[in-house]
UniProtKB/TrEMBL annotation:
InterPro entries from the UniProt entry: ABC2_TM (IPR013525), ABC2_TM_bact-type (IPR047817), ABC_2_transport (IPR000412), Nod_factor_ABC_transporter (IPR051784)
Biased amino acid composition, Gly residues: 18-32
Superkingdom of origin: Bacteria
UniProt keyword terms in alphabetical order: Antibiotic resistance, Cell membrane, Membrane, Transmembrane, Transmembrane helix, Transport
Any one GO BP annotation for this protein: response to antibiotic
Signal sequence, renumbered to the chain: none
Species whose genome carries this gene: Kitasatospora camelliae
This protein's name: Transport permease protein
Lipid bilayer topology: Multi-pass membrane protein
All residue ranges annotated as the ABC transmembrane type-2 domain in the record: 75-315
Organism phylogeny: Bacteria, Bacillati, Actinomycetota, Actinomycetes, Kitasatosporales
Transmembrane feature ranges: 75-92, 112-135, 155-183, 189-212, 219-239, 290-309
Family: Belongs to the ABC-2 integral membrane protein family.
Annotated GO CC locations: ATP-binding cassette (ABC) transporter complex
Region (Disordered): 1-50
Amino acid sequence: MNEISARVAPGPRTSPGVGTGSGGGTGSGSGSGTDAKAVPAPTPSVGMADPLRRNARAIRMLWHREVVRFGRNRVQIGMALVTPLMFLLVLGTGLQATQSGSDAGFDSYRAYLFPGTLVMATQAPAIAVGISVVWDRQAGFLRQALVAPVRRESLLLGLGLGGATSGALYGGMVLLIAGLVGIPYHPLLLVALLEVALVALAFTSIGMLAAVCIRRIEVFQVVVSLCLMPLMFFSGAMFPVGGLPGWLGVAVLLNPLTYAIDAIRRTLPGDVHMGGYADGPAIFGWTPPVIVELGFVALLAVTALAVAARRFSRGE
């Protein structure tokens, strides 16, 4: 007979086992008497995705959700475009007709209103994303999403990018009628579309900030309307910002949308300025370049998104 001796080499302690020999004796060993082999410990990455990949997937899924929601709601698309188009074609045409031929510089007032109309078109996605956040909280979707092993900032970023994409699509539809107001179709319109997307991200971030602080849809709609309308009126969308009274001039300079609309106006091809008036913001006589104005808008978007994420982490 073959005699088997169970010998265990010194090493890490293992669970004791009992091995039987040919002589009926018992001996302590590892397992059933065979040589013990160290089993490598699984690495942390086995069985789980990389955190960065998980967050990127969450951002993409929420972005896709908002874009699909935008595409399926055709009635909302049509209704959201009514206000800016009425603002542009009716108000612009009426004021231009009353001042045509005078020295007031209203001969191209519709073209002057066009940048403000582009920005106004991005308000609808901001309100829609905010409403979806409030509704998802009431329906329990947010609590289910918070169980996922992703950062909460990623959830808000995905929603924000979805709203920015929807806003850019709204702006693209408004850009299609640029020729009706005397703005030529030029590759610079694509640059203006990117600027509109940045403004849409800022609007959406503001909407999400309001949504994480407000738990009722009715209150949210009232608060957002009261915030967005003054931002539009104090932005120079309807009148030049040069030569305004002191208090009004200060309010215009403190408004981030002033710089957004001026950046778009300076980017658009053709004559979109009102003759005889300084229609751009000036800070102590200094007119900021377009890249600086866009930096102000980006700062607004990042700040609102960061505050919303911080509030979202504490409040849910």
